[in-house]
Amino acid sequence: MSAPLSSAPRTALVTGAGKRLGREIALGLARAGWRVAVHYKSSEAEALQTAQDCLTLNGDSTAPRLCIFQADLADEAATKALLPQVVKQMGALSAVVNSAALFEHDDVQSFSYTNMAAHWASNTGAAIVLAQALHQHCQDRKAPAAEAVVINMLDQKLWNPNPDFLSYTLSKAALEAANTLLAQALAPQVRVVGVAPGLTLTSHMLADDKFEQLHKLSPLGRSSSVEDVVSTVVFAMHNRAITGTTLLVDGGQHLMKFERDFSLM
């Protein structure tokens, strides 16, 4: 694994870091020597636990409450205020990992402007606003080229489409396109990289035995593990030659045709 750019700890903001994959990414970054700003929407207790665990891994005695930041990413004003709050509290920021996402089911029959707008705001607009804010922060502090990075968490289903979760899929497809546009617009200060997992964690929609069965549906006989995804994020954070592209981490699931979303198979 590549070392950070300097021996001094750098700080990353991870959205949705109180639970599930966002929490695991935050812990993985802490293990790699990053200071982590933990964003949450409503899971304050979980965010505090993530922050405490990150500080323990860093050997830092900072109070965990100083490292958590609440914002509803569907609210543009709250999203714009988030990064300045992190900088004020924790100092210079070098990375944003856009892990938080709205994931609600709809399809062609149930599609509505309202549902599309909700997914667009949370999953696409917020990531762009935070990238914009990180770039401005880098300009203000005259950061060196490629010192900062935005990681956008995507989904293998963009390369293996099915009509389930229509608004979610469209919002992530727009974010994947934004990787290219943001990488062009924010260079040389900020790199932009997508990471697209396959089926990684189970949910309330999948029984454990069903998850295990679906997880094996890939050319490699297994999809992505949490460790696979986290190590890819850390790699992308440290490798200064990567920008404007997406790393698929799914055991090759995107090469197989699935007629339905995993949760509905």
Describe the structure.
With 265 residues, the chain is α/β, with parallel strands linked by helices. The chain has a single domain, classed as 3-Layer(aba) Sandwich (Rossmann fold), CATH 3.40.50.720. It has helices spanning 20-31, 44-58, 76-90, 113-140, 166-186, 208-215, 226-238, and strands spanning 11-14, 35-40, 68-70, 95-98, 148-153, 190-197, 245-249. The chain has a seven-stranded parallel beta sheet with strand order 3-2-1-4-5-6-7, sandwiched between helices. Helix 2 links the parallel strand 2 and strand 3 (68-70). Helix 4 (113-140) packs parallel to helix 5. The longest helix is centred in the middle third of the chain and has 28 residues, at 113-140. It is globular, with a radius of gyration of 18 Å. Residues 1-5 have low confidence and may be disordered.
Short structural summary:
The protein is α/β, with parallel strands linked by helices and 265 residues long. It is 42% helix and 14% strand. The protein has one domain (11-264): 3-Layer(aba) Sandwich (Rossmann fold).
